[in-house]
Fold this sequence. Notes:
- By secondary structure, the chain is an alpha+beta fold.
- About 50% of the residues lie in helices and about 20% in strands.
- The chain is built from 14 helices and 15 strands.
- A hairpin with a 2-residue loop joins strand 9 and strand 10 (about 295-305).
- Helix 1 (about 5-55) packs antiparallel against helix 5 (about 155-195) and helix 11 (about 350-375) crosses helix 12.
- The longest helix has about 50 residues, at about 5-55.
Amino acid sequence: MRRPRRLSSQLLRVQLAILVATVLLGFGLALVSTQRRLDDDYQQRALAVARSVAATPEIAAAVARGDRSGVVQRRAEAVRRATGTTFVVVTDDRGIRLAHPDPRRLGQRVSTDPSGALRGDTVLAVERGTLGRSARAKVPLRAGGRIVGEVSVGIHERALHRELRAIAPALALYLSGALVVGALASALLARRLKRQTFGLELDELAGLLQEHEAILHGIREGVIVVDPRGRLRLITAEATRLTGLSGDDRGRTVEEAVPAGPLADLLAGRTGGQDELLVHGDRVVVANRMAVRRDDRDLGAVVTLRDRTELDALVRELDSVRGLADAMRAQAHEFSGRLHALAGLLDLGHADEARAFIAEVARTDVGLRRDITARVGDPRVAALLAAKSAVAAERGVRLTVDPATDVPDALVDPREVLTVLGNLLDNAIDAAADAPPADGEPTVVACLTAEADGLLLWVRDTGAGVPAGDRGAVFAAGWSTKAAEGRGVGLSLVRQLVARRGGDVAVEDPEDGRGGALFTVWLPGAVRAAPDAPTPPTRSDA
């Protein structure tokens, strides 16, 4: 099969064809323009000769007398030979020739119309007469203030052609130089185009474009392309959903389009880009940034974004279910042990001790649930506290509710409170279980207090605490003391949620000096205030 011509070769051929056609057209137009200029120049030369002849008193007087002695002919021929013109014709006021290069035409009427000059006008024209085509000038011949004839002087077109042929080679040489320069420029342009398109042909470029569109719209990941100057060049629909960027941001720099934060740092290349965990708004995103280079040229970077919000929520829910299952398994084991103890007491006939044992177990199990339901009006928050207490008990941690807890059943969005409280409790239980105190039982204390339309929430643990140098980084996405992949999201979500509410979150050391960490959260607008409720007390620190 015949191999198709390369794109650069096709472009070079087309450019050369256009260049040659342009040069030829320019050459033709230059010749036409030069010929017109030469016509004008020869007409002006003929006019100067005609005026000098018409200003000769001897010729004017002879024409006025109707002289046929040949004076006019001799003087006119002398002027013609001296000036190198083709002809000098003198006529009377009827257009009859009195002077002509061909003596045989004397006494005949001129072949061209003499009326313009006989009216007193100066006529410049390129006309064809008895001697051929020539540039000529006609002026009136006056004697005693009246027009007695005309003087017509012409230069044959052969003289024009001789001068035009003398000019043409230089003009052709100039245009040939321009053609060579244009050809070199076209070759350089074709070479540059080949380099910029990486040697791809038109069909290959079309195929790449189709594949590009199919891939971008066929994958679930969001894609953002950044050029070497830091400008956004491509933002897919999924990337718009995950980041809030839109098509209007294309062409803008990262600093102009993206607020300062982890996403802006990733797009600008200021942070690493391998499975970076970002929290943007209420979305958990896994981001990858890959620099693109070809032939040692920096082509920018491609950033892919994968939504992990639903997966992360499922993982947290699975952890909760697993924790509850473990707690139920432990409680079943404990309950089985209690039943064996109770059966032993009954078999030994200790009925009173058996009744006392049952009463003690009932008080222990019901106490926490009664304390939670008495202080927490929202059933979902109460259920979360009860479930987390079972998980904590399974891990050897005692979860208690601070006596100051007072949550009405009037939360604006209980899911926000569940997210904040659940994450703080999970971290606190992990910290207390991993680093039990030397002089007591691992403990987690939670407190929720409604103040006006806001909710003050704090969780304290007896774990290892948070070093002062890490208290700013503890809320960053991906930061965790655990080695497991995918951790370090919970506290980042808490910060994002609280910031969206206009609240604040902080971590500090407990005031009693017993170690551990105290996380405090303020959520304004989280509680629906009663219409006739009295003004609540001012918020105080936990």
